[in-house]
């Protein structure tokens, strides 16, 4: 089988790599890589002549590390000093690397970490520099910590403007820079913080945002899954409107945009913060093809009797002509669809708790 698709599966106990051909019906699996390390973030970087894999792994002995592979995981190299370390004088240490994302310029990567910080690399991830204006933001002392910790779990570099980056943190909300990181501004107008008292539920910051996504062909439009609420912005996050009507629940973690259609978006609803499994115990992806105006349930091949969740980075898409969609769950199972979500088949089961899946055509 000639590998044209790669799927990285990060778990609490290592990384697995699945490869397939264009049909994406049969998969070959290797792993665990980085055995017994938490892998919260993965990246398949296809900007170069050959794909480069990145993994943000955390060892209980050695701390967090960014690792790179240029041969689909056969060998790995470690970055100097873990690549991401707080400068002296900041009185902080990196606990986990929650996000690794390619920037619009050659060699540029971004990372989001716990505690909440954003980092930028200009040398393909060998070294990262702290975005100090965000780390030293006057609102930072008032940011809280979500149930999973305080982390910048979303980093979205603008696809054409290298000075613009949108990021999100639990709990703090959406922040954005349009001047290359010199300043950052909260961008949460219209997002409800349901856990706050009545009359205080629309603060300028402090929302528990779970994930933000957008399509590079329409960068001014963003989709957001909140701790209660699904939203869309059509003005580069200046304001948000609810698009939750039609969903079985407005709580969930991932939100993913179709690789070819900026109007098509996927979510995986869960009952609520107190019962983090799908409605009626049925694993279902929900899709909108009109930017959230209406929703349809996708479940052909997905299981019933399903009482686990899907984490914020547990859903991904590839960019084949017939787009692939992938879901990894906390019970260690991963499903894939090669027809934009119309039908699903299992890829692997019985892995450790899945934290992140990342797919790409290579």
Q: What do these coordinates show?
A:
The protein has 1 helix and 28 strands. The radius of gyration is 19 Å and the shape is globular. It has one helix at 132-135; strands at 5-11, 14-20, 28-33, 38-45, 52-59, 63-69, 77-78, 96-102, 109-114, 117-121, 129-130, 151-157, 165-170, 173-177, 185-186, 209-213, 222-226, 230-233, 241-242, 251-257, 265-270, 285-288, 296-298, 315-317, 325-328, 334-337, 345-348, 354-361. It is mostly beta strands. It has one domain (5-361): 7 Propeller (Methylamine Dehydrogenase, Chain H), CATH 2.130.10. The relative contact order is 0.13.
* Main beta-sheet strand count, sense and barrel state: 4 strands, antiparallel
- In CATH, what is the class? Mainly Beta
The order of strands across the largest sheet is: 3-2-1-28
Distance between the termini: 14 Å
Helix content: under 10%
Q: Looking at CATH, which topology would you report?
A: Methylamine Dehydrogenase, Chain H
Structural class: mainly beta
Please work out how many helical segments DSSP would assign: 1
Topology order in helix (H) and strand (E) letters: EEEEEEEEEEEHEEEEEEEEEEEEEEEEE
Portion in strands: 35-45%
- Which segments are poorly predicted (pLDDT under 50) over 5 or more consecutive residues? none
- Per DSSP E runs of 2 or more residues, the count of β-strands stands at 28
**What is the general shape?**
globular
Mean pLDDT: 95
From the 3D coordinates, which CATH architecture would you assign? 7 Propeller
